[in-house]
Specification:
With 372 residues, the chain is mainly beta. Helix content is 4%, strand content 39%.
Length: 372
Amino acid sequence: MSRADDLPEAAEARQAPHVPSRRLMLKGALAAGALAAAPAQALAAPGTAPAPSPKAASYVNPLVRNRADPHIHRHTDGFYYFTATAPEYDRIILRRSRTLNGLATAAESVIWRKHATGAMGAHIWAPEIHRVDGKWYIYFAAAPAESVWDIRIWVLENAHPNPFRGAWVEKGQLKTAWETFSLDATTFTHRGTRYLAWAQHEPGMDNNTALWLSEMADPWTLTGPQVRLSTPEYAWECVGFKVNEGPSVIARNGRLFMTYSASATDANYCMGLLTVDADADLMNPANWSKSPVPVFTSNDTTRQYGPGHNSFTVAEDGRTDVLVYHARQYKEITGDPLHDPNRHTRVQKLGWKPDGTPDFGVPVADTAREGA
């Protein structure tokens, strides 16, 4: 997820355990008759980018093992901040490094743990870290310990300049129009307005989750209205489950691009793309166009399966865009996929086509680590 908490006008734009898969978890929820829904995004912190190095680095993959739904935020202090879903779904972790490859071996801190009872007591999913108005915020999904499928969006705040220090304060649930299954919140600004994008089940709709957008009054409050940007409609969005989730936004070439993930979180998981002109009203769904085909999918040649829940960041050179995502290294899953922890964080260069649209390529093959 994170390229900048500001989606920019050009200059600002630069800036081993047990893991249930979200979509399959939803299957259990539906079987139990407990439906609910939600989403996410990613960019880099506003302000002057850290001093660029001579060139973009080559990356080691997987970058971080057993960490799904990865979000990397490059801040103006020169650090990359990393958070992701831990397979136990019980805590929020944070790493930092001055290089992307350094995140692989960076010390990992637990900055918050689930509650033993009550709200925020289960299914701690897809955290994202953002710097907003001089404070740190983490958006994440959680459910009550006593009702584990009633998943909603929650917010933490830290006023300390260093997110590894200070106190993470629970700001509470980020309220949307309905009390339904919701997750994967991400935030960005465009031309002075802050937005939240997320995934949620809309009452009465025959889907699991759709993508939503709203303006924000502050980092934990929507102004409304909330508008639906996309709902699962193509066959590739409806394999196993009818899912649009995990939004992430990057602004380039006079447009905003919102990636999202679709279908069940097995090898069918893939990424779609929405596009809007930078001058258009983002809150008018008619201004957004949707790719009829997925833009990033499983690949038998590189042996990467179920790529998705991405975010964006920028390379050490300060110019090269980087795609951050998770994938598994095998197609067949033994046992319950909910218990398969092997969605690993991966990174690769994001290209751009001559027409100004992103060129995702294919998920890159594994690389050997030095000394391995």
